[in-house]
Design brief:
The protein is mainly α and 140 residues long. It has a single domain, classed as Serine Threonine Protein Phosphatase 5, Tetratricopeptide repeat (Alpha Horseshoe). It is built from five helices and no strands. It is rod-shaped, with a radius of gyration of 34 Å. It starts with a helix and ends with a helix. 13% of the residues are buried.
Length: 140
């Protein structure tokens, strides 16, 4: 049974590489996922999967798996650090945007309050002016 799994693993890895060489990333991904199920502690399968994974989160998990298997893999460690640095930058930018939006909302609210008060003041001034003018025109 163990021998068959090893043969199947090697076949899946070989067929995955061939599929990738022929431009079929989806098939390569599928074959290497099957290989990872057969031997999840094989660094080569995770290195191969890095070539076909699209999402950054999937790539991060793959890099973590590589480092679990081989903590001395400096390239995987470097790639994981770069990924984490990008994530931190994105998080900081998101926080800054949220902070800027909060400031803009506060400024908009203040501006609306001022506009409302100014409108109210102008309206009352108009009424006062109309009353004074009518007194002057129609007064006794």
């Amino acid at each position: 049974m163990l021998m068959n799994a090893s043969i199947d693993f090697e076949r899946l890895m070989r067929e995955g590489r061939l599929a990738l060489d022929q431009g079929d990333r989806d098939l390569a991904h599928e074959l290497w996922r099957e290989a990872a199920l057969l031997d999840p502690y094989n660094e080569q399968v995770w290195l191969a999967l890095l070539d076909v994974l699209e999402s950054l989160e999937d790539r991060r998990v793959c890099l973590q798996n590589i480092l679990e298997i081989n903590p001395l893999n400096t390239q995987a460690r470097r790639m994981l650090r770069a990924y984490e640095a990008r994530q931190q930058r994105r998080f900081r930018l998101k926080q800054e945007r949220q902070s800027q939006l909060a400031v803009l909302k506060k400024q908009r609210r203040s501006l609306m309050t001022r506009a409302l008060l100014l409108g109210l003041l102008l309206g009352l001034s108009g009424i006062f002016f109309a009353v004074v003018l009518s007194i002057l025109i129609y007064g006794t």
